[in-house]
TrEMBL record:
Taxonomy of the source species: Bacteria, Pseudomonadati, Campylobacterota, Epsilonproteobacteria, Campylobacterales
Species the sequence originates in: Helicobacter muridarum
UniProt GO MF annotations: hydrolase activity, acting on carbon-nitrogen (but not peptide) bonds
Residues covered by the Amidohydrolase-related domain: 56-386
Keyword RNA-binding attributed: no
Gene3D superfamilies: Metal-dependent hydrolases, Urease, subunit C, domain 1
Domain of life assignment: Bacteria
Alphabetical list of Pfam families matching this protein: Amidohydro_1 (PF01979)
Protein name: Amidohydrolase
Keywords linked to the UniProt accession: Hydrolase
Length: 423
């Protein structure tokens, strides 16, 4: 049993809120209690304790959409337009996927450094499986399925069954298998249905990219435009059996699903999606490929295929500035600028978008500091002179976690605890 304390504890649970000089009591990978540090210390005199002065304790962050296999990319892909990006992926992905293990390891380190304790990894070829298994992170490993040619159905089924059988045998309390149906334009109807049945049979989470580009919307609505040429050019396919928008969403009625991007979903489509699952936004990827931000109730980095890094702290900071900039355009001249409490509530929204919200979407028992939750905890140094803006101070300045616990175990070892004594 151990007790961790800090000048600030942000629970990401509105009933408990923010604690000054708070403590989190941990035993056997679980949170036993959250409260005042000194009171908890009195109650549990025999346990190990550590108080981090001028630090903040938070739930470990959750990166709910990342492609580790593309971590080697710097400038192999084109940005600014989704069609140009996808063409460049088709042409250059082979080189990016080759000898990518070092880059994958680096991207995993980047997660830990930014205080991420859980990743939902979208894996096209399972090249990242072993690195993630050995990462000590909590991992949801989504085997991604791509296949537009119905003639290959039998092989496609054998392939995904083998991949899934292999990873399901590796299940631990930190590692779970899941599926990803790449997108409605890249998986034919028969295969899509098969994948959903697999997810339903084995109770697996399923992730998908949906309505990311205007080209996808055009294809789903009228089977025309960029994708028609795409199939011909890259896959030598004249026709592809794919669902329309509503049919695609309906597929997910019986499974736990996460839909990434949804930039071209109008409000009624979003309502339908949210009846069946959650929407994940990758703000910098969305902007780079499609010039749109997306809804930011759940924020993830996407892969280095469509981002300059996979640092979730940078992603959060980006959203803070972009939200303030959008607010500025909304405000007319007569209104005063964003107020102190507005910016703190934007920061809180951003923090929840990488903690409690993705935890719920992914069906995890973490993302909140509360009795009974998994002890996935991140500790950051913080300088905060204005208590009413503690979350803003974190979002704005956090550079790296000094300690990261997953299931109660510290998985980064460069924490420096000197001078961390109370008062
Ligand atoms: O999320 C981004 C943009 N949308 C779609 N796919 C990808 C993203 N980053 C990497 N990808 C991968 C995807 O997993 O690109 C390939 C797939 O392997 C595109 S389909 C040939
Ligand atoms: Fe993606």
């Amino acid at each position: 049993m151990k007790l961790l304390g800090a000048s600030f504890i942000i629970t990401c649970n509105d009933d408990i809120g923010i604690l000054r000089n708070g403590g989190v009591l941990i035993d056997n990978g679980k949170i036993l209690a959250v409260g005042d540090f000194n009171e908890l210390k009195q109650q549990c005199r025999q346990c190990d304790f550590l108080f981090y002065k001028n630090h903040i304790i938070l739930p470990a962050l959750i990166n709910s959409h990342i492609h580790f296999e593309f971590s080697k990319n710097i400038s192999s892909f084109m940005y600014g337009r989704f069609d140009l990006w996808l063409n460049s992926v088709m042409q250059n992905r082979g080189a990016i996927l080759k000898d990518n293990l070092k880059a994958i390891q680096k991207a995993i380190m980047e997660q830990k450094k930014s205080g991420v304790g859980t990743v939902c990894a979208i894996s096209s070829y399972d090249l990242d499986l072993d690195c993630l298994l050995n990462s000590n992170l909590r991992v949801i490993f989504c085997h991604e399925v791509i296949g537009a040619d119905e003639k290959d159905f039998e092989n496609q089924v054998i392939n995904i069954s083998n991949r899934l059988e292999h990873s399901m045998a590796l299940k631990t309390n930190l590692f779970q298998s899941a599926l990803a149906l790449h997108a409605p334009y890249s998986v034919h109807t028969k295969l899509a249905q098969y994948i959903i049945e697999l997810a339903s049979k084995y109770k697996l989470l399923i992730s998908t990219h949906f309505l990311e580009s205007k080209h996808e919307l055009e294809w789903l609505q009228s089977k025309s435009g960029y994708f028609k040429e795409f199939y011909d050019k890259y896959l030598k396919l004249e026709d592809v059996q794919s669902f329309n928008q509503d049919e695609f969403i309906d597929l997910f009625h019986d499974v736990q699903a996460i839909f990434t991007h949804c930039l071209y979903a109008d409000s009624s489509v979003k309502e339908e999606i949210l009846k069946r699952g959650s929407i994940i936004s990758c703000p910098r990827s969305n902007l780079l490929l499609n010039g749109k931000m997306g809804d930011n109730n759940i924020i993830a980095t996407d892969g280095k295929s469509s981002n300059n890094d996979v640092d979730l702290l940078q992603e959060m900071r980006y959203v803070l500035f972009a939200t303030l900039s959008a607010k500025e355009t909304e405000q007319d001249e007569s209104k005063s600028s964003t107020e102190a409490r507005d910016i703190e509530s934007i920061s809180k929204h951003i923090l929840y978008a990488v903690t409690c919200n993705p935890a719920k979407a992914l069906g995890l028992n973490n993302g909140v500091l509360q009795e009974g939750k998994d002890a996935d905890i991140a500790i950051f140094e913080i300088e905060c002179e204005h208590l009413e803006q503690v979350i803003t101070s974190f979002v704005l300045n956090a550079k790296g976690a000094i300690s990261l616990l997953v299931n109660g175990v510290d998985i980064i070892s460069y924490g420096n605890n000197e001078n961390n004594t109370i008062h």
